[in-house]
Each structure stands twice: as C-alpha cells, then as structure tokens.
Amino acid sequence: MSYDLKNIKLPRLAGTALKILTAAVERAFPGKLLLPRILKDGGISAFRKLEFSERPTLMPLVAATRPATRREPDKNTLTRVSKIQNKQNGFQFISASAYREAYRKKKITPVDVAVSISRFIDESNQRNMRAIVAANYENLMQQARASAERWKKGRPLSPLDGVPVSIKEELDMIPYPSTAGTKFLGRDIVAEDATVVERLRSMGAMLIGKANMHEIGIGVTGYNAHHGIARNPYNPDHYTGGSSSGSAASVAMGLNPISIGADGGGSIRLPAALCGVYGIKATFGRVSEHGAVPLCWSVAHVGPLAATAADLALGYTAIAGPDRNDALSLKQPDVSLAALFKADALKSLKGVRIGIYDPWFHDADPEVVAA
Length: 371
Hints:
- Strand 4 (about 230) and strand 5 (about 235-240) form a beta hairpin.
- By secondary structure, this protein is an alpha/beta fold.
- The strands form 2 sheets. It has a 6-stranded mixed β-sheet, with helices on both faces.
- It folds into 2 domains: about 1-55, no CATH class; about 75-360, Amidase signature (AS) enzymes (Alpha-Beta Complex), CATH 3.90.1300.
- Helices cover about 35% and strands about 10% of the residues.
- The protein contains 14 helices and 8 strands.
C-alpha cells in the first residue's frame, strides 16, 4: 500500500483573526462565497461525495474470540504479578512490591506513608511542581488507617492494599469533582467512583488525590493555565508531556508507583516517555470508561502509568476487564498475562518487534524529520 496522505491548504488562524473569519462565514455575505472554498480546500466537499460499500463503524471494536468469563480482576493473576521482582542494577523507583514488603515486615505502616505523602504534595506544590492538584488529606488518612488495620491483622485485601495511587482529573473519584483540567467543569463533588477507581478502592489501594492534566486533554505538553503547569521531575524547566501530565509526574517524583491516566492520541504514552516511566494504552474497550469525562469517547482509553513494568502489569490487571456500566467493554476475552510469566519475558526484550512506518514519520517539516 502506497503512502498517499495529502496535505490540506487552509489558513492557520487564532484569536481575533479566527473570530473575524467565523463571523464572516456565518453571515449570508460573504459567507456564501467563503464557505464553499473552505470546504473544498479542506477536503470536506470531496469526502461528502464518497460512496462506501459497507456501513462504516464509529467504534474500533474487535469481536472477542472467547468472551470473558470473569467480571472482576483475577486474584491469582494479581498475586503472580505482585511477585515479579525488578532485578535491574542502578537507580530504582520504590515499587508496589516494596510497599507490600515494608508493610508485611512492619517496617512502616500505610499511615506513615500517608503522612509523608501529604507533606510531600504540599512541599512539591510550593515549588510549583503541580503533579497533584487536589488532595483531601482527611480522606487519605481514613484510607490509610483502614489499610493499616488490615495489615496489622494480616488480612490485606490485595497486593495493592496500602499502595499509593493517583488518579487523573478526567476520572470520577469521591470526594472530588472532575474538572478535566478546566475551571468551568466539575463544580460539584461526584456521586460515585469511576469503575477503575472503584476497582482500585475495593483492593485497598490508597487513592492519594487527583493528578493534573492538559485542559480537556487537547494538548500534548501538559500545560494547564488554571491549575498550574505539571513540571518534569527530571528538569522542572521542561514539560511532562500530556495530557496525563500529573499522572506521569507523580510516578516520576516517587510519590506513587502507579497512577491512572487516559489516552486518546498519546496522552498516556507521551508523558510516560518524557518522564521516564511506564505506560500502556490497552485495546479499545479493555478498560471501562464508565465515570470518565466524555472527551473523546470513540478513541478513549483509560490506562495505568507506573514506576516499573511489573507495577504497570499490576495496575493493568487491577482495572481491566468487562464492566456492565460500559457496553463497549463487554466484548472482550479474559485478561491474561501468560506471556509475561514466561521466564524469558522477565529477563530481556529479545524477540520483541516494533513496527515503524517510515513514510508516516517522515511526513513532517524538515527540521522535525532531522531531529
């Protein structure tokens, strides 16, 4: 198949110029003269004349070969993932398994962690890091005390019990509003958790607060004029990438080993790459969208960002799977990490192949291609 993407020729306008053009197009004159030319140059006129032999689908769904038999995360898989050890040398993040070992050996408690997190969020925001933009410390301490009591009795709910997790501002979580990074949305506290938040809460995860994001998710830098710019922990003068900016930054800061973000066109993958952490955009419908602000529902993917590959797999296993509240999530097979548990998969990336379509990557300004 040849690469035949054609560039469109339209004026690039913003601010006052865009307002003037909009007003002109909406008037009878000169709108009747301008609009046909704009539609033609933008390819809209040609698109309207296309005929399709099949009815196009609006959703990127693939029929499941084996429908899921489980509605809840598989506890056996969670346990197996939690036992994966990171054997790399050099710098290492504090992982979810490190928290569990510390709790199990009674070196620290979830209450100790919650106190440190509260202090760290305040200190980091005083330095304008702005990874976490909303935190209810009273609620956090309630979660921590409940988790500490379970660990004291030797009955944690799951491998995630007491593990700090941040949640992107795009997802509903009690007791917070969901602003999607704006000032005009989410004026009231939500009535219920998003499905992914509910699943994490049921496993005892310590939900520390709402992570910053690019306003409405419509940008790749992570810039937010309303809640402050989430800064890259490796260099505060640089962007985190977006739109799940605070999610990636909170993991890279060591605040939490797992965060939940969302991806429509790179919003998990970009900040994960720029902040040196792991992120995954799972298959469409793999993770429930129930309780997410409907920003781009036909291409929306909720997913985890994490400090290690094992933590990423743990977060993914915890939130993936069918949800009765999201019809688009029902046509999927059971969540399986069988390939991850093979010995070779844990030692190297040997045999892994990544497809790169060069013509697409070279379709950019010469300066970008050269970089």
